[in-house]
């Protein structure tokens, strides 16, 4: 067997250490700090999408996959309307309405035609791909310039985008808090908690599902509208994987909120922490880019985070149940010995 000389080993280690030193020297703390505002602004925009995902995933207990298509729809509608001469603020409102329509279609496929919710979402998403292409004149992407149009948000003015996005998130959270405190909103929440009991109480669960899905996709389209303006273009694939990012934001926000507030975590705080979760996700994304890692690996990273966070409650309950079973078995064994 051929042995490696100490000199060769030393040279190899020296090369590795030199490469590591060169890599670390290429990282600039000032560069990271300069990227943080952009990460915060994008996180706030995606927070609207995360709130939409929260409505279906947590409140209605429905896995809605149509959001991947609805996100792109919001961007496509907004950019085309702005290019056509419509004021950007009005284009955002119309994008929200288009999202409501898309969510309603998913809800009707599920409630009226008996298609499982996850398949109904897939069908809507699949159809929206062609619709989004048609909206943009069968182009994969369409640009909109901040120099030519007065956009609601723009990546060229990050600080202003942060302020505008905070206002959007605050208003949406306030409206959602008000709506879900009304009789209709409470019935939607009841439908997600227990459909059979809600139906027995005379609640129209099918209508509530349609309302929840419509509202969720409306928020997702609103997020897509703002993101397209911020990025300067609408892309037919911009919503790909949006559901996973939304779930990551929801789960990160809930974990942090529960850790900080515990039992004081009410509905309003939960929505606030979901928005914070979206910001944290994009700050992590910013850190990954700063570390010069391959950004294509973020989807794997996000999937791992979501899988772990979803698995932790199950594993925790399974562990507690195993301890309880072990305790009962030990008590039964002790009782049997005493009887003997």
How many beta-strand elements? 2
Distance between the termini: 68 Å
* Alpha-beta content class: mainly alpha
Residue-averaged pLDDT, rounded? Answer: 86
Q: Report Rg.
A: 25 Å
Written overview of the protein:
This protein is mainly α. The protein has a domain at 37-238. The chain is built from twelve helices and two strands, in the order H-H-H-H-H-E-H-H-H-H-E-H-H-H. The protein has helices spanning 6-26, 29-59, 67-83, 88-111, 117-135, 158-179, 183-193, 195-200, 205-231, 242-261, 267-290, 298-339, and strands at 141-143, 233-235. It is globular.
Please provide a brief summary of the model:
With 340 residues, the protein is an all-alpha fold.
Which labels suit this protein?
globular; two-stranded antiparallel ribbon; 340 residues
Blueprint of the fold:
Blueprint: H1 6-26, H2 29-59, H3 67-83, H4 88-111, H5 117-135, E1 141-143, H6 158-179, H7 183-193, H8 195-200, H9 205-231, E2 233-235, H10 242-261, H11 267-290, H12 298-339
Antiparallel strand pairs: 1-2
């Amino acid at each position: 067997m051929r042995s490696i000389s100490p000199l060769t080993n030393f040279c190899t280690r020296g090369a590795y250490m030199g490469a590591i030193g060169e890599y670390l020297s290429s990282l600039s703390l000032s560069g990271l700090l300069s990227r943080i505002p952009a990460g915060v602004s994008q996180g706030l925009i995606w927070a609207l999408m995360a709130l939409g995902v929260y409505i279906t995933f947590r409140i209605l207990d429905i896995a809605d996959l149509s959001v991947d298509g609805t996100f792109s729809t919001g961007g496509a509608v907004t950019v085309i309307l702005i290019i056509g001469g419509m004021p950007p603020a009005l284009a955002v409102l119309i994008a929200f309405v288009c999202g409501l329509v898309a969510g309603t279609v998913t809800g009707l496929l599920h409630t009226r035609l008996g298609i499982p919710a996850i398949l109904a979402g897939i069908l809507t998403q699949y159809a929206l791909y062609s619709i989004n292409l048609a909206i943009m004149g069968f182009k994969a992407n369409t640009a909109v310039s901040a120099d030519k149009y007065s956009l609601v948000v723009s990546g060229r003015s990050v600080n202003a985008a942060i302020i505008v996005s905070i206002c959007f998130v605050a208003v949406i959270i306030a409206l959602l808090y008000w709506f879900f405190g009304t009789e209709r909103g409470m019935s939607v929440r009841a439908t997600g908690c227990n459909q059979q009991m809600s139906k027995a109480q005379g609640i129209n669960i099918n209508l509530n599902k349609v309302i929840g899905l419509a509202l969720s996709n409306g928020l997702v389209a609103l997020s897509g509208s703002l993101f397209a303006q911020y990025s300067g273009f609408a892309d037919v694939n911009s919503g790909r994987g949006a559901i996973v990012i939304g779930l990551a934001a929801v789960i990160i926000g809930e974990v942090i909120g529960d850790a900080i507030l515990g039992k004081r975590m009410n509905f309003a705080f939960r929505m606030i922490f979901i928005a914070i979760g979206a910001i944290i996700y994009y700050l992590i994304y910013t850190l990954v880019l700063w570390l010069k890692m391959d950004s294509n690996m973020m989807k794997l990273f996000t999937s791992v985070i979501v899988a772990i966070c979803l698995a932790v409650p199950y594993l925790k309950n399974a562990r507690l149940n195993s301890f309880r079973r072990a305790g009962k078995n030990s008590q039964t064994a002790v009782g049997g010995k005493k009887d003997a």
